[in-house]
Design goal:
The chain is mostly beta strands and about 475 residues long. The chain contains 1 helix and 28 strands. The strands form 6 sheets. Strands 6, 8, 9, 11, 16, 17, 18 and 20 form an 8-stranded antiparallel sheet that branches. The longest helix is centred in the middle third of the chain and has 7 residues.
Length: about 475
């Protein structure tokens, strides 16, 4: 646009100089001014200036819906995996394997192949398969592709990752994913009710602004994004070392289809395999982390529901998914030694058993689980108690239950903050199998919180009781909550 500077008010979009200040009015192609007064009426052909912003090192136009509503920037967490520890979380992942291996450690997960066998593979598929509804979905994965010597990914091996319910080495018939083919082509694919990308929408990935095919540098990790909308899918590749998006593809829905996926729920997956011809070197895929979110959506989902969907309930260890409650299959719990200097059970609730003790004011540590580096929130408590062995004959047994939250150690020194949970009484004459007079059930408006690196102690004292070697006090405790 050329600008002429003149004195006074000038029409037709030219600049004017008033009191030493230059003023410019911008017009669209039809001669209408782009700037408008508040409340001024415009017609249907009015044009405007796009609004943009900066994401990392890339400009992005503001995203709106068909009514012009701006994106809400509300992210509902659908899935998150950081690969902490050395054991794959059994509650979050299914593994299908034939000839390859998967190893977790140092904050990432490594899929490793071999050069000796054709048509072998490993597939990791998340147990979380969220509903692919109308709202946009974003899946972000940090991945490095190479051979096991950190050189170029070999021909005759393949890798794919993204969204699909695939469970075998077969072609994917529904999903959205990145794929490195056995011929060495890196492409993006939208599969719809078919036998693979040959009958679907597939597009080779090229560097932005060029016709140069993108091929992963075997020494680099890239951030791969899949942005799933109702009628298109955007795939981006970001160089993590520079922050630049170096490749971007947009696939539009095939005109012969009826909706974007035959399956309404799709899982997050990574797969590595060999073709019918074994490769010259062994392929390798290293996954740093995965994050998936539902965009532009506010469901007001309670925090316990969100963390349950992410596989982080208090029923299992947050890193591995191993059961935390003391509840071994077909096994009576070990008889506990009651003390305030150590935990009788290093579990988060479950079954318990101890010999009837004399009355007193000693506080005993019954359950104290390890700390896992996550905040623990307990929202519900249930305690049931019964008698086993001999009948309660001499005195009633009074159990006073307490909880110490956020302690620095599992030794109950008396400096911890204690909270009363409730009391149970077992009457004289209660035969084996008879229960205490009540179950303790607590639903907490304000949860018990245990910070990462701190401990929870669930304990009790027996103000009234008789030491009886042949009588067992047994029961079960449920401490329900979530890890954050």
């Amino acid at each position: 646009m050329s600008v002429a500077l003149k004195n006074g008010v000038v029409a037709n979009g030219e600049a004017a100089v008033l009191n030493g200040s230059s003023q410019v009015v911008l017009y669209d192609q039809s001669g209408r001014p782009i700037t408008r007064l508040n409340g001024e009426q415009v017609d249907a052909t009015q044009r405007g200036v796009m609004v943009s912003g900066k994401n990392d090192n890339n400009a992005r136009h503001l995203r709106v819906d068909r009514f012009g509503n701006a994106g809400l920037n509300q992210h509902l967490n659908l899935f998150h995996e950081d690969w902490e520890g050395t054991t794959l979380h059994q509650g979050r992942w299914n593994t299908f394997v034939a000839g390859f291996t998967g190893t977790q450690g140092q904050g990432f997960y490594t899929l490793t192949g071999n050069t000796t066998t054709s048509q072998v593979y490993i597939l990791s598929s998340a147990t979380r398969a969220p509903l692919m509804q109308r709202a946009p979905v974003q899946v972000k994965q940090r991945i490095r592709l190479s051979n096991t010597s950190n050189a170029a990914f070999p021909v005759n091996a393949f890798a794919d990752f993204g969204l699909s319910n695939i469970t075998t080495n077969s072609p994917i018939n529904n999903g959205f994913y990145f794929q490195l083919t056995t011929a060495g082509v890196f492409q993006v694919v939208w599969s719809y009710n078919s036998t693979g990308p040959g009958t679907d929408v597939a597009q080779a990935v090229v560097l932005v602004g060029t016709a140069t095919p993108f091929f992963p540098d075997p020494t680099k990790s890239y951030i791969y994004d899949i942005l799933l909308d109702d009628d298109n899918v955007v795939f981006t590749v970001q160089d993590a070392s520079t922050g630049n998006v170096i490749a971007e593809n947009t696939l539009f829905f095939a005109g012969t289809g009826f909706k974007r996926s035959l399956e309404s729920h799709l899982s997050f997956f990574q797969r590595l395999g060999n073709s019918a011809t074994a490769p010259g070197t062994a392929p390798q895929m290293i996954i740093g982390d995965i994050y998936a979110a539902l965009l532009d959506t506010q469901l007001n989902t309670p925090a316990p529901h969100v963390y349950a969907s992410l596989g982080r309930t208090s029923a299992s260890q947050p890193l591995t998914g191993v059961q935390l409650g003391n509840y071994a299959n077909n096994t009576t719990p070990t008889n506990a030694t009651l003390t305030n200097a150590a935990a009788a059970y290093a579990n988060l609730g479950g079954l318990f058993s101890f010999t009837a003790t004399a009355g007193g004011v000693s506080d005993y540590n019954l359950f104290c689980p390890p700390s896992f580096g996550y905040d623990l929130f307990i929202t519900d408590v249930q305690i049931d108690t019964w008698v086993n062995g001999a009948t309660s004959a001499t005195t009633p047994t009074l159990l006073h239950w307490l909880i110490c939250e956020n302690t620095t150690a599992i030794i109950n020194t008396g400096t911890q903050v204690r909270e009363h949970l409730g009391a149970q009484s077992i009457p004289i004459g209660t035969a084996p199998g008879g229960q205490a007079d009540r179950s303790i059930t607590r639903t907490l408006i304000t949860p018990f919180r245990v910070a990462a690196g701190r401990f929870l102690i669930l304990g009790l004292r027996t103000p009234v009781g008789t030491a009886t070697a042949s009588q067992l006090i047994q029961g079960g405790i449920n401490l329900r909550g979530y890890w954050r």
